[in-house]
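Dear Dr. H.,

I hope your travels went smoothly. While you were away I took the liberty of generating a structure for the chain from your last submission, since the lab meeting agenda had it listed for discussion. I wanted you to have the full record in hand beforehand rather than looking at slides cold. The sequence, exactly as received, is reproduced here:
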Amino acid sequence: MAVPKVVKGTDVGQTDTHSAKLPGDYDEATFGNALIPDMVADPSISDINGTFYCYATTDGWGRGLATSGPPVVWTSKDFLNWSFKGWSFPSDFDLKYWAPSSIVYRNGRYFSFPTLDGKITAVVADSPLGPFLAPNGQHVTKATVHPFPLKQDSAIDAEVFINNDGQAYMVWSRRREAKLKPDLLSLAGPTVTIPTKRQGYSEGPYLTKRGGIYYYFYTLGGGETYRYAYMMSRTSPMGPWEAPKHDIIARSDPAANILGPGHGCFFHPQGSKQWYFVYLEFGRGGTTRQIYAVKMNFNADGSIEPIKLTKNGVGAIRTNTETSANLALDCNATASSTRPNYRVRLEKYPRLNRVETYTPSNAVDGFNGTRWMAAASDKSPWFEVDLGSPRLIRRTEAYFVKPAAGQAYRLDWSLDGKQWHIYGEHDNAVICSPHRDEKSVRTRYLKLTILKGDPGLWEFRVYGVPARTY
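The corresponding predicted structure, in token form, is as follows:
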């Protein structure tokens, strides 16, 4: 959960005045193909009955660790197209929500162990989507919250591992571990400190098993200089532990503009032997992070090959659920205004050129790490895409910036860019991503006017029948 310092009053840095010098593909190379089209951190992925569930901290709400975005659960059938609907807690939830754990199913309920207002807390739900409540059925609020019964001394970032015999183990920050009782609501023994090879502050732990070997992953450092290390045990989830020769498996790669591979998770999909590492990246500084997925591979002795970090994404790892072409991809896009570029302030790598641009083309480039943002002074922000020629469309998807706060908008279509007709009209802010509108029309232009919510788009997609088929 550690975050770096940023310029006072911002989450990004200082205004950049040299945007003309940036190459055309700058944003794609710098921010790349994030897994989720939003600012999230501390991801935990669960694969349940053919659906991937991503539990994560909602970033991008300003004021660093003094706040967080509300809790949501992103889901995907193919690991490529992600969505969520509504919050995962009742609407009276009022705590800071950080670092939710992977979901655990026990006794007919789904358990999660997020850090709420800085303390590990157990919550339960009848569905992996929530709504999550206290184990006694109460809503979880500042007035009713009951932290997990362990020593809450810088205790954050809990993860729970279930061994083959059904015994549950919890790991949390600063290398701590303990067995859990069968109901998962209290410790079943003493808290131990895992004797790792590397010392220093550590968070973002993860405990798992592969081929008879238990793996304990832990972070070192933070911000721009996060590293991930691991230990192995061939005996039990509590050791004895051994350090492989090459125990650091992920670190910053400034040459590739990848900084701070921090708090993440390690998993393999059901029925697959391929493992993946999903990590948070430094982003724009402060709590403006995004998450990325890469493949990870093992040596014959069970040790892990050093992970080559990229921002390319891994694509669909099950059958792609979207069978139609995105007609808006790389089309000409315009907008009412564009926010000035921002140069991210870096402390460890001050000479590294990391600038975020906000041009309208970012919303049709197919990358979840780039976005269009209207100028802060724009009172009537709109975004328009030209499909190049009249196309038969059937559906649109708008991935707004800061979707957990909700958006209201109007979407219009036109054949000539002059006479406009309503395609979708939503006067009340709705909390979801993406926002979908469905109607079969033949159009060339689409214009989205934002009525409520942050004026920006990660992606705007248009689906229909390709021109050559009619």
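Two observations you may find useful: The two ends are 52 Å apart (CA to CA). The chain has one helix and 32 strands.

With kind regards,
E. W.
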